[in-house]
Amino acid sequence: MATDTLVTPARTAKAGPPAWRRLFGSWDAVLILALLVVVLVASATIEGVGSPRFYRFVALEAIPIALIALPMTLVIITGEIDLSVASTVGLTCSVLGQLWYLGVTSLPLLILLSLLLGAVLGAVNGVFITVFGLPSLAVTIGTLALYRGLAYVVLGDRAIADYPPTWTQNAVAPIPGTVIPWFVLVLAALAVVFGVLLYATPIGRSLYAIGNNAEASNFAGISVLRTKFWLFVATGAMAALAGVFWTFRFASARADNATGLELAVVAAVLLGGVSIFGGRGGLVGVIAAVALLGILRNALQLADVPANALTIVTGTLLILSVVGPNLVRMARERLRRRRPATTLERKPS
Amino acid sequence: MRIRRTRVAATAVLAAVALTLGACAEDTGSGTDAGSGNGNASGTIKEGLKVTFLPKQVNNPYFDTSDNQGGKPAVEEFKGQYAQTGPSEASPSAQVSYINTLSQQGTDVIIIAANDQDAVCGSLTEAKAAGAKIVTYDSDTKPECRDAFVNQATSEGIAQAQIKLISDAVGSEGGEIAILSATANATNQNAWIELMKTELAKPEYSKLKLVATVYGDDQDEKSFQEAQGLLSKYPNLKGIISPTTVGIAAAARYLSGSSYQGKVQLTGLGTPNQLREYVKDGTVKAFALWNPADLGYLAAYTGAALASGIITGKEGEKFTAGKLGEFTLGANGEVLLGDPFEFTASNIDQFNF
C-alpha cells in the first residue's frame, strides 16, 4: 500500500506512455498511422499524389482487391485460405464474355449468372474442404489451376470486348460531382455488411473461436464445417462480382484476366493484421491495408520507381505484415511484464 | 475539355520555353514557334516534350532495343525528355495502371505496345483527355483509342522481301523452293504465303518454282523434322523460306549440321540472336525482320509531330522523322516504317534482341 502512494505520482507524471502504448499496441492503429504518413509525405514530395484523379485511379485499382479481401479476411480468420480467387475472377470473366458473345444481352441476367457461377465455384472449394476434410491450401491451389484452365477452355486466346459502351462507361463512372468511381459505394455497402457480420453477430464472433481451435468450437456447439462452407461460397461470389467489375472496367473478357490477383488479396489481408494461423485480425486493418498498398504503389509509380523495385517493396511489405503484428504483440507483452518491475525499482527512491 | 487541353498546351509551352532558356548555351534559338499550338505548318518539333515508352513489359530485349536504342536517340535529337516505364509482366491491367500514372504526370506523348487492343482503351482515352498524344507501336489498339499507329511492316512488304531474299540467295539459275510455315490456319502466315505466290508469278522470278508448303506448327521439333522431310523428298531443292522465327531457327539448325549447308539456301523472318551463329557459318546469307530501333525512332518522332501540331492523325499528313526522312500518314492514322530490314553477316552484330 505504501508503495502505491509513492508510485502513483510518478505514473500520473508519465501519463503519456500507457496511452501511447495502447495506441501502438494495436496493429490497426499502426496501419492507419502509416497510411496517414504515406499520404502526407507522398503528397508533399511527389507531384500528382493527393489529387482527386490520383484517388480515382487508386480506387479503380483497389476495388477488385478489396471486394475479395472482405470475405478472404473471414476465411483466413477461421484458419483457412482461398488461393483460387483470381482464377474464379478469370473464369467468371470468360463465361460472362462468352454468354454475351452467344447473345445474352440482359445486363442483370449476366450479372446474376456470373454471381451464381462464382458461388458454385466457391461451393466446390467448400465441399472439398468441409466434406472431404482436405486442407484448403491444397484444394485451392488445385482449383487455382483448374478454374484458370477452364477459363482457357471457354475463351481460348480470344478476347470478348464488344460490350455496349454504356456498360463499360458506367462501370467506371464517377459519383456525380466527384471523380471517385461510384462502385466505391457498392464496396462500402458490402464492407458494412461484412463488418456487421464479423463484429456484431454470433456467427462472426464464432469465426475467431474456429480459427483458434476448431475442435473446441465444435464441442461448444458451433457448426464449424457449415460456417466454413458458406464462407467459401461467399468468397466465390465476391470474386465473381470482382470479375464482373473487371470485365466492364477493362472492356475485355480474357481467360488470363486477373492472373496473380490472389497474391495481392492475401498480401492485403495479412498486412491488415489477420493472422495466417487464424483466430486474429479484423476488417478495419484489412481495409486500411488495401488502401495503403494501393496508394503506396501508385505513388511510387508516379515517382518513377521501376517495376522491379515495386515488386521488392510489395514483397518487403508482405514479410513485414507477417512479422510486424507479432513483433508488436511481443513488444506489448514485454512492456506489460516489465511494468511491475519498474514499480519495484522505484521503491527505494 | 477544350479548356483543359489548352491549359495543358500552355503548360507544355511554358515548360518548353523554360527548357529552351535553360539550354541556351547549346541552342541556336529555335523553338520560337512552339506557341503556335495546333496547325504548326513550319514543321518544327517543340522542345522539352515528355515522351514515355510503355512497352508490353520491361526487361524485354526486343523492347529495350526499340525504346533505348531507337526511341531515346530520337527524343534526344528533338531535345525532349525520354523515359521507358511499364509492368514487369505483360498484362493489360498492369499496363492500365502505368497509363494512369503517365496521364497524371502530364506526359506529352505516350508510346505504347498494347497488351490488349481493348483493355487499355479506357485509360488511354482518359490520358488523351488530360492532353497526352497516344502513339501505338508493335501492337495496335482500336484506332479510336490512339492518335497514330506505327506499323513495322505490311504483308506485301514482307512477302516481297522474302522472295527477293531467296532469289538473291539461290542465284540466277533459280530452281525449286519450299516454304516452311507455322500452323496451317495462321492468318498472317497464310496472307504472306498468298502474297509470296503473287510475287513469284512476276517475270523476274520465273526461274523459281515453289514445290511445297509445309507446316512446323511453330514447334521446334516439328519444324526441324519438316525441314529434314523437305530435303529428302525434293533432292533438287535450292531454297527454303520460313516466315516464322521458330521455323527459320529450326531449319537453320538442321541445315548447318547437314551436308546441305551452303547448298540449300535459307531465309525468312527471324531475330538476330537466334540466327547469329548460322549467319556467321554461312547457312543463312540474309534474313529479314523490321529493325526495332528504327521502329522506336519513328514512333518517337510520330508522337513529337502530333504533340507539336505538325500532324493530327489524318490521312495524307506529312512529317519528317530525323534520319529516316519523310513519312505520310495512311488510313486510320497508320505510319508505315517501310520495307523489312535485312540482317546479314555485316550488320548482325549491331543488334541484340
From TrEMBL, chain A:
Location relative to the cell: Cell membrane
Pfam families given in the database record: BPD_transp_2
Membrane-spanning intervals of the chain: 24-46, 58-79, 99-120, 127-147, 179-200, 229-248, 260-277, 284-303, 309-328
Bilayer topology annotation: Multi-pass membrane protein
Keyword field: Cell inner membrane, Cell membrane, Membrane, Transmembrane, Transmembrane helix, Transport
GO MF, any single term: transmembrane transporter activity
InterPro entries per the UniProt record, alphabetical: ABC_transp_permease (IPR001851)
GO CC annotation, single: plasma membrane
The organism's place on the tree of life at top rank: Bacteria
Protein name (Swiss-Prot/TrEMBL): Autoinducer 2 import system permease protein LsrD
Classification lineage: Bacteria, Bacillati, Actinomycetota, Actinomycetes, Micromonosporales
Automatic annotation (TrEMBL), chain B:
GO-annotated cellular components: outer membrane-bounded periplasmic space
UniProt domain Periplasmic binding protein: residue ranges: 52-309
Main location group: other
Domain of life, source organism: Bacteria
Compartment annotation: Cell envelope
Single annotated GO MF: carbohydrate binding
Gene3D superfamilies the record matches: 3.40.50.2300
Keywords on record: Signal
Annotated signal peptide: 1-25
Biological process per Gene Ontology, one example term: rhamnose transmembrane transport
PANTHER family per UniProt: ABC-TYPE SUGAR TRANSPORT SYSTEM PERIPLASMIC COMPONENT-LIKE PROTEIN (PTHR30036:SF8), D-XYLOSE-BINDING PERIPLASMIC PROTEIN (PTHR30036)
Stated name of the protein: Rhamnose ABC transporter substrate-binding protein
Gene that this sequence comes from: rhaS
